[in-house]
Design brief:
With 311 residues, this protein is α+β, with helices and mostly antiparallel strands. It is built from 15 helices and 14 strands.
């Protein structure tokens, strides 16, 4: 039997509320209890289980009780109370404060995937897009199945509006926008200076989402001598903005989609074409993607090895 099949079989444990007689006994009471659980929503099921009190409190503080009580369906990767307790001291108290509601919502929606993603699909998937907008990654090995490093300890708790999978840690999305992420990386000093000179920093700190093909410092340094200095002058503002906007695409375009080949319109108004080579390299125009799928709070960054120049 393949590893994925073994994991599905091993992980597809019943929720605590379903404990009763075994399948070999074939008693009707277990089926009745199971039916009643399936009639409960995700929130009702989680509260009844008794090990998600912190999650329920967080959802209430984040004003997410009503959305997750809706029709859905949703797949929730639910951290237990122990998972929340394992966060650094003071973290949870800070997140539950009214002024932190935006951050709390971002974290909680990062645990929710639209649709019904059962254990069989999880072990066959590399990633999934969450309600947060960012993607989570799945990994399966001899030790089990994991989502962003958190172990999935129980799966396929079916509810009226979705599925719950229990995880042993709280997973955290990126909370920094594309500009802050690039600045922190340290290899985009020229790009940061160019964005500031082009008066585009505030725009790229907005909700987005944006896909940024970000030339590193080496890419800018490879331009003809004097080019960068000339572009940073106030009189060349329009030209600089046109170039920088040519590196930004609305929405989140991940490397796996770009590798299939696509022509996408940039914020500049012109289009760029993505492709992949037999060696597995992904290109946007003539620039090679050196580092892909860097998640940010309002988009995704792909590092490229040259500056893209629009017509």
């Amino acid at each position: 039997m393949m590893l994925s099949s073994l994991l599905v079989a091993a992980m597809a444990l019943p929720a605590p509320a379903l404990d009763g007689c075994s399948s070999s006994q074939g008693c009707s009471s277990t089926r009745a209890v199971a039916a009643s659980v399936k009639e409960k929503s995700i929130l009702e099921t989680a509260v009844a289980a008794g090990q998600f009190n912190t999650l329920a409190a967080a959802l209430k503080a984040g004003d997410l009780l009503e959305p997750l009580s809706g029709e859905g369906p949703f797949t929730v990767f639910a951290p237990t109370d122990a998972a929340f307790a394992a966060l650094p001291e003071g973290t949870l108290d800070s997140l539950l404060k009214p002024e932190a509601k935006g951050t709390l919502q971002a974290i909680l929606t990062y645990h929710v995937v639209p649709g019904r993603l059962d254990a069989e699909h999880v072990v066959k998937s590399a990633n999934a897009a969450t309600l947060n907008g960012q993607r989570v990654g799945f990994k399966v090995d001899d030790h089990g199945a994991f989502i962003n490093g958190a172990k999935i300890v129980k799966t396929d708790i079916h509810c009226s509006n979705g599925i719950i999978h229990v995880i042993d840690a709280v997973i955290l999305p990126s909370t920094k926008d594309v500009v802050a992420t690039a600045v922190e990386a340290g290899s985009f000093k020229t790009l940061a200076a160019a964005l500031k000179a082009a008066q585009l920093v505030e725009a790229l700190q907005g909700d987005g989402p944006f896909t940024v093909f970000a030339p590193n410092d080496a890419a800018f340094a490879a331009l003809p001598a004097g080019t960068v200095d000339a572009l940073l002058k106030p009189e060349n503002l329009d030209k600089l903005q046109a170039i920088l906007k040519y590196h930004v695409v609305p929405g989140r375009v991940y490397a796996d989609a770009a590798a299939k080949g696509a022509t996408v319109r940039t914020l500049n108004g012109q289009s760029v074409t993505t492709r992949s080579t037999e060696g597995g390299f992904v290109f946007v125009g003539q620039a090679r993607v050196l580092d892909a799928d860097i998640e940010t709070s309002n988009g995704v960054i792909h590092v490229v090895d040259r500056v893209l120049l629009p017509e």
